[in-house]
Design goal:
single chain, 345 residues, mainly alpha, two-stranded antiparallel sheet, 17 helices, 2% strand, disordered N terminus
Length: 345
């Protein structure tokens, strides 16, 4: 990230050197975790009491249930002529469901969104869902799809993912997700380790609050660049539209959970493979040791393989740079600002 943490002695470290930060160690031997309430050296790991167990269940249960439900709806054409519309409803229902939950069980009261902040998030959701989203998703079914078909023809894979069963759809989705997430992991990591590439990604990290609405806050240039990954993976693997829809349901529910202002706890075993809210909150922390970790936004497996995993249960303030809220203009212009101005925000 940028030279961000004014509270960290590592703030003077040269950006983009590519080395991993050595964590600050407290008297207890635990890495120091800074929260709004002060410096915490204990409690960086989950204490498995009744509350932790209860908060570890919702994410894996609801994400898995949404994927199974959507796959079953597609195979059995539940909903008649408009069954695909109903699958879309299942996917997008994650946002209102989690927004309501945040009002009752907020992880941090300071993260609850004010009306003007919700309006700003609606702008980002609309720009992603109504402008960039259709451009990316329709590429697979427009004249541009010829390019993807040519890519598939040149690929040595010569395979097709067009399953006709519920388990087949879920299996195909997982294969594509794990494969594409390998490349996403390295692209994402490079964005954090190179100031040149960070400027497109910085918009998503200048979030001083986390909420289910905030996963869509992505710079348009990054949205298009990352969005190309899915249709390319679909083309290379010959995936059917049904596989794409199941993949979208997984991405919507898991992505919204990961940004939600809820006291979620990572479920063991599940969190070996799939990214969780606890892990992704670390990734959005102002503390750079935490922010430069957990690059897998949906699949965490590659972070564990390549040594960038952070399992802290505590996070302090969210954000980047000085940790202050930026205007929409600044968020859109981050990709074009000079290095000096980019670092000053």
């Amino acid at each position: 990230m940028t030279d961000q943490s004014i509270n960290s002695p590592n703030a003077a470290r040269q950006f983009g050197s590519g080395d991993r930060l050595s964590p600050e160690i407290g008297p207890s031997g635990q890495p120091i975790v800074r929260t709004e309430e002060g410096i915490i050296t204990e409690g960086s790991k989950v204490t498995w009491d009744k509350s932790a167990i209860l908060w570890a269940l919702p994410q894996p249960i609801l994400v898995a249930s949404s994927v199974i439900l959507v796959a079953a709806m597609l195979i059995n054409e539940w909903g008649g002529e408009y069954y695909r519309v109903w699958t879309l409803m299942v996917a997008v229902s994650a946002t209102p469901f989690l927004l309501i939950a945040e009002r009752f069980w907020a992880k941090k009261k300071s993260w609850l969104l004010k009306p003007d902040e919700m309006a700003e998030d609606l702008f980002w959701m609309a720009s992603g869902g109504l402008l960039w989203g259709p451009i990316v998703s329709d590429m697979y079914r427009t004249p541009v799809s010829d390019g993807f078909l040519a890519l598939r023809d040149m690929s040595p894979l010569q395979i097709e993912f067009q399953p006709t069963t519920v388990l087949g759809l879920i299996g195909a989705m997982l294969v594509i997700r794990f494969t594409s997430s390998f490349f996403y992991y390295w692209l994402h990591r490079i964005q954090h380790e190179s100031l040149f590439w960070w400027r497109m990604h910085a918009t998503h990290h200048h979030l001083t609050k986390l909420s289910a609405m905030r996963g869509n806050r992505t710079h348009p240039l990054e949205y298009l660049a990352l969005g190309l990954g899915t249709p390319m993976a679909l083309a290379l693997m010959g995936a059917s539209d049904e596989v794409f829809i199941v993949s979208a349901a997984f991405g919507m529910w898991n992505g919204k959970f990961n940004h939600a202002n809820l006291p979620m706890v990572s479920m063991p075993v599940w969190d070996w493979f799939f990214a969780t809210a606890q892990q992704h909150h670390c990734h959005h922390a102002l503390e750079r040791r935490q922010a430069d970790s957990n690059y897998g936004c949906d699949i965490i497996f590659w972070d564990r393989v390549f040594g960038t995993y952070c399992g802290d249960a505590e996070v302090g303030p969210a954000g980047a740079g000085k940790g202050v809220r930026l205007s929409i203009k600044d968020q859109l212009m981050l990709a074009f600002y000079s290095d000096k101005r980019l670092k000053s925000l």
